[in-house]
Structure formats: structure tokens, C-alpha cells
Amino acid sequence: MDLGLSVATYFVLILVLLYILHRWNKTSSANFPPGPKCWPLIGNLHIMDLNRPHKTYLELAKTYGSVFSVQMGMKKMVVLAGYEAVKDALINHAEEFGERGIVKMLKDMDKEKGLISSNGENWKVMRRFTITTLRDFGMGKSTIEDKIAEESVHLTNHIASFKGKQFDDLMILNAAVANIIVAILLGHRMSYEDPQFKRLLSLTNENVRLLGAPMVSLYNVYPILGFLPGSHKTIRKNVVELLEFITQTFVKHLKNLDENDQRSFIDAFLVRQKEDAENSQTYFHNDNLRVLVRNLFTAGMETTSTTLSWGLLLMVKYPKIQEKVQEEISRVVGSAQPLYSHRGQMPFTYAVVHEIQRFSDIIPLGVIHETSRDVTFKGYFIPKGTFIIPLLTSVLKDKTQFEKPDEFYPNHFLDAKGNFIKKDAFLPFSAGRRVCAGENLARMELFIFFTSLLQKFTFCLPPGIGHVNMTPGVGITSTPMKQMICAVPRF
Length: 491
Fold this sequence. Notes:
Elements: H1 2-27, H2 53-64, E1 67-72, E2 75-81, H3 83-92, E3 99-100, H4 104-110, H5 120-136, H6 142-160, H7 169-186, H8 195-210, H9 214-221, H10 231-255, H11 265-275, H12 286-317, H13 319-332, H14 347-360, E4 369-370, E5 375-377, E6 380-382, E7 387-391, H15 392-396, H16 439-456, E8 457-460, E9 486-489
Parallel strand pairs: 2-7
Antiparallel strand pairs: 1-2, 3-4, 4-7, 5-6, 8-9
């Protein structure tokens, strides 16, 4: 009898709890942005495409407009869709929408240190140091342009070694692009065949792919599931290995440190660390250095190399566009090394590079922001601490900003006379306080690597392959599915 009462009591308690959760969901905030009906405990998880959540958000925007809410488990979030809403939030309300939303997986990885997953004074100090130091080591200057041009020679020589036979370009492009940030971080480039370099690229690629896995999404919503096997555990293991390499590297730098001859980003950080040795509140400690270097290595390699890989596939798919780019390169550059300064004389090629970035849509969700204070936005009240998703895919494919948003159409960036034109809605690097710190470097890399490759080769499918697979794989970034291509020498 007592057992029966106990079971009944528990049953009633569960019903009361579910009722409270349901009422909380409906009345948690007056004038909060609208959104789909939520279920207790799971929120809107039942309607989400966990492999490609941006697809779900794009569909919801059709019903609820440019500012709407979703609930992942117990966490309410606000999604911004379309150029006007994203620009207004990130630029016109930069302070209110300028914090980083720290999900559980990122917290595990970065411990709220470094640049990507930190807030407050730590973020301000690390960002200021990063931008200043990158400039000191040539970002935006001819010195870094020379490094990219030199690396493009290594890249084209390596691709030439395949003698027109099929190869997988993604890891090679990863290595070439990574070498630019490696040269800044460590003071030297690494060989494409270096086993340690290959391992670092492999670990970084795997983490970027797994961060978009459904199990990681569920872990972010329900950290209690962390005991289960899955992608979240693989990511943590990979991060430990990456941090061990970084630790060994900066210990070597510390042994040979010459304060009057700083040859790398790590040198510059270690010098600041020495200068701040007496300051107990310093942000220049080893934990920040480890995470910051890993942040820069990942960000400095992944998105740019993925964009280049999409670019080559698009040239394969649209051979007439590839031919027109090659004609412009031949006319303006000839057989000389293409440089970033040539872009003004090459409007079509420059437009193609921009359209590759727009169409490939590398980070469709953007990176999660968080409101730093209560804010009224577009007539809605959004409380402090609300996660914000700036849906970049909805900006890059906004029908009010681009004539043919779902097609690869370089004319988006050309006027009637064939001159290059800027587009305000071209925001692949995001905008506002959290805009990509390496935007200028990435722009240089994309133009120089792309033109160097098309100057030397014509890209096509291997014999017997009928079509280019343009379906992106699952991941935190939109990466092409693995497929082989051929690079036929032009000379």
C-alpha cells in the first residue's frame, strides 16, 4: 500500500513539474520574440535538423520573421535572419549584442580563455594584443603578402607533382593556408609532408567536423549526457593533444627568447608575460597563450582553406567562368606572381572570389553571441544573457540584397560596365565587435592562392566522374564532401 502511494505521489509531482515548466515557457518574458511552440524539457529539439540547424532556422524565419526565438532544452535563444536584422544588431547595437555565447563544448575546450570563447576584460586584452601583434608581423602589409606569394609557389609545385592525375585538394589547401598562420605563430613554415604538421591539421579538421555533430549539439543542451560516448569526448581528447604540442612549442621559444629580436607571435606573448610578471592580475599567462594559439591556428586555417576548396569545385562546375578568370590573369599578370595589389586591375576575378565566399556560405550559423544587457530590439524585449544566433546564411543569401541568391553568379559584385562593386550584405566574416580578427589576412590569402592556382592549372573532374557534388558535409563549417579533382598544367 505504501508503495502505491509513493508511486502516485511521484506521478503527481512529475505532472506538477511539467505544468510549471509549460507555464514558465509561456510567460518567461513579456514581449519576447515569437517562435514555435515549445515542449517541456526538450523545447524545440523535436523540430530541429541537428545535422544542419540553419535549414530549420531559415524555414522558421518564413513564419516568424527576421527576429524570432527557439528553445533548445531549457535555454531560450533568439535568431536574427536577413541582412537588416543582423546588421542592426551587430553594428548599430554592437555593445548590447557583443558578448560571446559560451556553450558547454566550447567551455570544455577553451575554459573561457583565449579569443573565441572569452568575454569581458580577458577578451578585450587578448583581442587587442592579437590584432596589434598580427599587424606587427605583417598582416595587411606587403611582408605578409610576400609570405603568401612564397607559399603559393610551394602549393603549386606540390600540385604539379601529381602531373594532372586526380588528387584530394582539401588537406593540401589546409597545409598551404595553415602555413601562413604557422609562420606568424612559430616564426617558420612547415613541410606539407611533416608528420607532426599532418597530425595537427588532421586533429583540427576532425574537431571542426565533430563540433557540428548531433551528439555535440545534445551535449551542449544537456551537459548531464557528458558521461555517454560520442563526439564530445573525441573533441576533448584532440584538444588535449593540440595543447600538448603548443605547450612544447612555447617552452622551446622561452628557452631561446630574445626580447630584442621577437620572431613570432609566441615570442611577443612571452615578452609581454615577462613584463607583466609582477602583476597578479595579468592576462598574459600560459593558459591564455595555449588557447589563443589554438584559436588562431584553427581560425587561420579552416575557413580560408575550405573556401578555396569550394572555389576549385565551382571552377570545375563552371568551366566558362574558370576560363574567363584565366584570361584576365593572363592579360593582367601574365606569368608573373599574382599579388593582392593586382585585384584592382582584375575586377572579374575579384568578383569571382567574393562570390565563392558568398555562395559557399562557410559558417551558416555565424558564431553564437550573447546580450550583455537587457535590450529592446525591433520592438521585442530581449533579456541580458540571451544567446543570439546571427544567421549569416540568411545574410549572404538575402533575396533583397542579391539578385540570384541561390545561384553562383559573380555578377552580384559587378556593375553594368564590369567594374567591381562592394555589397554591404557581404558579411562572411560577420560584423561588429566580434568581426573576424584575421579578415584582412584571409582576403589576401584567398585572392593570391586562388589566382596563383588558376594561373598555373585548369581544374576538372577525373575521367569517368560525371558531376561535381556540391552537397556540404556535416560540421560547424560547410565543408565540401570528399571528392577527387585533376589539375591540368596550363603551360
